[in-house]
Predict the 3D structure of the following.
Amino acid sequence: MVKILFVSDTFYPRVDGIIRFMEEMHARLNKKYDITFLVPKLKGGSKKANRKNMDVIYCPTFKFSIAEFTPSKPIGSSVKKSIDATDLLFVNTPGGPLGASAIYYAHKKNKKIISYAHTLDWELFPFATNRPKLKKLLIPILRRIYSKSSLILVPDKLITKEYEKIGINSKFTVLPLGADVRKFKENIFDRFLVRKELGIGKEFVIGYHGRLSKEKNIELLVNSFKKFRKKYPSSKLLILGDGPERILLNEDGIISTGFVANPETYLRAMDCYVLLSKTETSALSLMEAIATGIPIITSDAGLIPTYVNDRTGIILKKSELTRANIVRAMETVFHRRFAAKMKTITARLFIEKRDWIKIANELSDIFDKVIKQT
């Protein structure tokens, strides 16, 4: 059986798009390939990995954090052995310390390397740390790292262009992402039960789920909701997830659940979903909200405009992300709920085209082609 090493600088107990992707791929491909994970050892992460029967090699981490990330320590002998033993390295965080060091070592050993460009690292890291000058420093470093990959996967050809702009001219293949429409779908009974559990009746509920990090613009969401609630005092803001920005959620009308194992159930309690990211790629959390049938308000970051427009939701340019514009959008959904719902149905038609089973089959074909290359 072909051995594939999945490498990532993010892992359980965190919940984000990268982890969701690896989780879904492992569930569908682990019978065809011998899959091992090389990830940072984070408190509480091993329990969930054990429940999912994942074969994991853990890397120690430093005691400090950068933004919300706890970086892994340089590769040790046990990690090198795992790379030596694998047939293919699949790196999901090429710009992270673990991902980058794994790429460098695997390249020395002439291993086949596939990287997935889940994020625009030269935008994400400077924004998350509030140090925009880091961008110029990061670009040449990332250029060297990515150039060592046999193949770079991207969710859309538009992302390829962004990488080519900074001088990365490796071979690219598009592997679009999507949401699990079998799991993320409307369910009136669940909606009733979750609202009852959270103490919500007929109130209008604005929601968000995912990492509570700086680039997600949580502070702007909270401030916009506070202004909206002055006019509509019974409204609620339901936030699923955790992260450094959770400290902003101690306001009247805000319900913060932290991480939940079943976000699809809680999404059904929402009447409007808001994602105001400054930097994104596919935005899996937004796709999941659309699949659940929730009217959406979002920014035009990353690939969002490829499946959200004025016919499928309310989309604001990043330059238009002001409290006044967001409140106006919230009021539009509040007063025109049927029209907003119809837009979501149209948006869901796009999401349904991308299924995790189809994505896993495409990734399997990519693995097989790279492995066969001499």
